Amino acid sequence: QQLWGVWRAPQNPARVWILCPPFAEEEKSAHRTLAEICERLALRGEASLHFALRGTGDSSGEFSQATLNDWCDDIRAACREAKA
């Protein structure tokens, strides 16, 4: 599955944050706030990966077919990507 994500990182970040938004109407409401959090983290010298779980947002897949295990796998994939 292809996951949508935005990586923001200054050189030599002090810390890395993984932000996974809620879904449905709550995702639309939270998007700007999460983007602003990521911008502020970058100003503090910290990196962030803001991504959407499969079947939500701009990530591939169907929401109706996604399982909790799939989403846990997505979070682990986001952590691996951030480490890389």
Estimated radius of gyration: 13 Å
**Spatial sequence of strands, sheet with the most strands:** 1-3-2
How much helix, percentage-wise, in residues?
A: 40-55%
Beta strand %: 15-25%
Straight-line N-to-C gap: 18 Å
What structural class do you assign from the helix and strand content? Answer: alpha+beta
Low-pLDDT regions: none
Shape: globular
* Average pLDDT taken over every residue: 93
Specify the number of helices: 2
- Most strands sheet: 3 strands, mixed
Order of helices and strands: EEHEH
* Strands, total number: 3
Notes on the structure:
There is one protein chain. This protein is of the alpha+beta class and about 80 residues long. It contains two helices and three strands, in the order ββαβα. It has helices at about 25-45, 70-84, and strands at about 5-10, 15-20, 45-50. A three-stranded mixed β-sheet has the order 1-3-2, with helices on both faces. Helix 1 (about 25-45) links the parallel strand 2 (about 15-20) and strand 3.
Overview in brief:
The chain has 84 residues and is an alpha+beta fold. Helices cover 42% and strands 15% of the residues. The two termini are 18 Å apart.
Helix-strand blueprint:
Blueprint: E1 5-8, E2 16-19, H1 25-43, E3 47-51, H2 68-83
Parallel strand pairs: 2-3
Antiparallel strand pairs: 1-3
What are the main properties of this structure?
single chain, 84 residues, three-stranded mixed beta sheet, 3 strands
